Amino acid sequence: MLMADKNFVCSVCSQTFTRMWRGKVHNNNLHAGQSQIVRLIDYMVGRLNGLYLPSNPLDFRKKNSSFLPTHPQGTAFASKQLRHTQEAITKTAKLKEILDRYFPPSEVQQILWTASYQCSRCGDNRPLDDAIREFGKADEVRKATEYLRKS
Fold first, then answer.
1. pTM of the complete model
2. Across the beta sheet with 8-10, what order do the strands follow?
């Protein structure tokens, strides 16, 4: 099947679909209804803007994944993974908002990619938290300096 036939994408695992209803079934079965099925173009723009994090759909397949719900603890763990992903998206958007004020788009994308990569390597959102804290401090200093100059 050609890539042009894939019109919809799961925002959590990047699985592609030709039909929206099939994406909804996937969402309910694998992500407990907590993902979004979006148009391919919206997903591409979201990836470029840091809204959606990169992932491999094969990691979410039952035979390849140990965190999919197979018993009550699995469901809790999958929910925790989903919350982790949602927090990462929110934090990435916050970091992007700060970076957009001071850096060109290509540098913003490189910084976001680096933070995302570091998060995937360490398994949590600490690199995003650190980046938000550091760039946030610089942002506050710049705002305070501008305010004092105006006074």
1. 0.49
2. 16-17, 8-10, 37-39
